[in-house]
Write a structure and sequence with these properties.
By secondary structure, the protein is mostly helical. It folds into two domains: 120 residues, Serine Threonine Protein Phosphatase 5, Tetratricopeptide repeat (Alpha Horseshoe), CATH 1.25.40; 85 residues, Tetratricopeptide repeat domain (Serine Threonine Protein Phosphatase 5, Tetratricopeptide repeat, Alpha Horseshoe). Helix content is 68%, strand content 5%. The protein contains eight helices and four strands. The protein has a four-stranded antiparallel sheet, with helices on one face. The longest helix has 21 residues. The termini are far apart. The N terminus is likely disordered.
Amino acid sequence: MKYILTSFNVQESGKQKPVVPSASQCGTSPSTGGASRRVFSSWEDAIEHFKRSVENAKEMGNRAEEGRAHGDLGTVYRRTGDIQAAIYQYELYLNISQEVGDRDGEARAYSNLGNVYKSCGDYNTAIAYHKLDLNIAKEVGDRAGEGGAYGNLGNAYFGLGNFHKAAEYYEDRLLLPRRWETEQEKEELMVILELLISISAGSERP
């Protein structure tokens, strides 16, 4: 049986594989991990592959590649529901990225850590990480990364029930000059924004 591991899901014969829940009931929603479009026979195979990637990078003395491999490994662990292992690998990715000055890797690690904590309901920690991701995106002029960070912050504030703040970040994402993947994506975000503004306005009435 073959599975296709992407940064968004794992597919079996073109169908999304059921998510494996963790013991702590954390979710396994999509993240922007580096593991993308590689084919593995099982989750165990994927884990072993990226562990070998870590070791190979260490042997070659390539710290940047070692960091990316830890990020890929974290994404696999997150898909299996092993949240603590995912956090550990993402933290290694973050530390190495900071060590070698890999700003893109640092931003990705912040984003992934934010999404992991958000999936566990720790929205305040998630927001802190997503703001760090946003700061880097602005600093290096990464419009796509900036848009993703705005969306992630909107999602986190929505989880907190702070619909006004969520609407602000969704609006920032909507107004950011960028190429939308589909017109439907843009329209759906506009509907969400209008709904949140309506909910926020209603909650502020005496």
